[in-house]
Design goal:
single chain; about 230 residues; alpha+beta; 3 helices; binds N-oxalylglycine; binds manganese (II) ion
Amino acid sequence: MAPDSVHSSGSGALAVSACDEDLLFSRIAEDLITKSWSVIPNALPSALCALLAGQLKVSDGADFSAAGIGRGSMHTLKPAVRRDEIRWIEGATTAERAWLDWSRRLQSTLNRRLYLGLFSFESHFAHYRPGAFYRKHVDAFKAAPVQDDTSTSGSNRVLSLVAYFNSHWQPDDGGELVLYDAQGDTEIIRVIPELGTLVIFLSEEVPHEVLPTQRDRYSIAGWYRVNQS
Ligand code: OGA
Ligand code: MN
């Protein structure tokens, strides 16, 4: 490892080298090849984690709006399905730009290793208040064999990514993310939404749900998309 690879100052900031990032991105690529999903605790570089958690702490979710389902003119609020509040990440702050840079580097690595043709990335902060949940769903539907022109047929999301920003999550706090097998009936893994944990999965292949949370729960959800045309 290069001498400057890790700078640790007690429990303080930990800079991450290109070497650590390569290892993380390789592990994600391997997981996606072998099982369509990847769950990695302490995956997000701690400096990036601290920046994003800091921004969330300041805003406290005050500038978020109720999330709905469907794109464009099909968008509707569905409180029986999902109860989170969101704010799209546009790169307005240092933290958001660092996040977008990091996700762009992951995008290039996955394109090089897996030939996924990931073309763009969209992501939002999400706040689940106590009692909030997101019922079982997939993030994208398999393309119809015949391409229709109604523009309701898909978001062209290929890969979903979720990162968490909650310290000291307790077993009683609920709010786990549950991943299911492709049929949607067998639970594969239950993920605690703990600070720094990263979850990545193929958007069409992995049904998932957020169990009701007992505590304020902050995350980022993002999607890599392919070019429609
Ligand atoms: C989503 C989603 C999971 C989570 O926003 O589509 O599934 O754990 N989020 O926040
Ligand atoms: Mn989802």
